[in-house]
Amino acid sequence: MTFLQQSSLLSCFIIFSSSSLLLVSSRGPVYKPPSVERLTDRFHPTPVSAKMSTFYGSSNIRMKNNGSYADIILDKNSGSGLVSKDRYHHGFFSAAVKLPMGVTSGVVLAFYMSNSDVFPHNHDEIDFELLGHEKRKEWVLQTNIYGNGSVKTGREEKFYLWFDPTQDFHQYTILWNKHHIVFLVDNIPVREVIHNQVSFFVYPSKPMSLYTTIWDASEWATHGGKYPVNYNYAPFVASLGEFEIEGCLMPKTNSSTMGSCLMSSTLSSSDPVEGGDFIKLTRQQTVGMNWARTKHMFYSYCKDTSRYKVIPPECNA
Ligand SMILES: *[C@@H]1O[C@H](CO)[C@@H](O)[C@H](O)[C@H]1NC(C)=O
Ligand SMILES: *[C@@H]1O[C@H](CO)[C@@H](O)[C@H](O)[C@H]1NC(C)=O
Ligand SMILES: *[C@@H]1O[C@H](CO)[C@@H](O)[C@H](O)[C@H]1NC(C)=O
Predict the structure, then answer these.
(1) Which numbered ligand comes closest to the C-alpha of 51?
(2) What is the mean pLDDT of the chain?
């Protein structure tokens, strides 16, 4: 190959790479994500107030638009949070979230499932956590999973978002069935945990409630606690809406949490997340996930040799 060919190839490459830059914002390049199936279009949004109730900090929760949307607020007095009225054993759990603008170090917005209230010593948990930042706008997305009380091993992964999460609502989705757990952001899978590949830790399998909370995580959230919450910038207001909660429902009234569940409302047939589109990622979704993980993931517990002298076994599976 001649030098000329090389350099024209190189400039092609530069043009090609820069064509994937949609625009350059104040926080750097914003990338256009690959197109994927819109799983959230398969379900109907439900009013927040229909399926969620106050978890704590009721004075810092504001229902809006007749309960379709809600603001949850962290200020000097309190954080706040919502919890689902029912428990679910598998399902599709999605919310559109708009995060607080400005300086948000130490602030965490969590969208997660847990049963620690019922199983304090062997609980399951599936977490999205959005971690505020000391600089403007640069929120970090963290995912994590615990199964049957595996809290000694944090299985965190961290991502930068490819959009500004404070400007608009974006969808954060947990898909959980017996085949896999998938974390999706605007329908793009960012992480998949396949059931039969995790024989090394217990797959979350007991009914869980869904939570959305905003709270002060000064001790750890921003650069390991280097930047605590600065209440000069309070109140921190996160707006929530477009809740889609479909799954196998276990009424909370029954304190025995195992047993058979009821199918939730709007979908007739069988389990809404057991169909072909939900038990396995499509090729398009796999491409989307590889894009998210290659371009936007900057931390995985699997690579953290200073934290884990012995890397958890599923990392090498
Ligand atoms: C407000 O929500 C209630 C309960 O979901 C519903 O019955 C009512 O029609 C709604 N009102 C408006 C104006 O949308
Ligand atoms: C989960 O933990 C409980 C309590 O430690 C234990 O009895 C049970 O066998 C565990 N389940 C699985 C599937 O490992
Ligand atoms: C609670 O669930 C258990 C297990 O499925 C069932 O045997 C029991 O009858 C239920 N109790 C009530 C009050 O629904």
Answers:
(1) 1
(2) 85
- Condensed to tens digits (0 to 9), the pLDDT of residues 126-182 reads 999 999 987 766 899 999 999 999 998 899 999 999 999 999 999 999 999 989 999
Which whole number is the average pLDDT over 188-206?
Answer: 86
**Section 247-273 average pLDDT:** 61
Q: Is 47 in the pocket of ligand 1 (CB under 6 A)?
A: yes
Distances (CA, A) of 299 to 37, 144, 159, 228: 26, 12, 7, 21
Ligand closest in space to the Cα of 254: 3
How many angstroms separate the alpha carbon of residue 258 from the centre of ligand 3? 9
Task: State pTM to two decimals.
Answer: 0.85
Atom of ligand 1 nearest to the CA of 67: 2
Q: What is the CATH number of domain 33-316?
A: 2.60.120.200
Side-chain half-sphere of 133: how many Cα atoms within 13 Å?
19
> Which atom of ligand 3 is nearest the CA belonging to 254?
1
Q: How many Å lie between the centroid of ligand 1 and the Cα of residue 46?
A: 12
Asked about 125 being catalytic, the answer comes back as yes
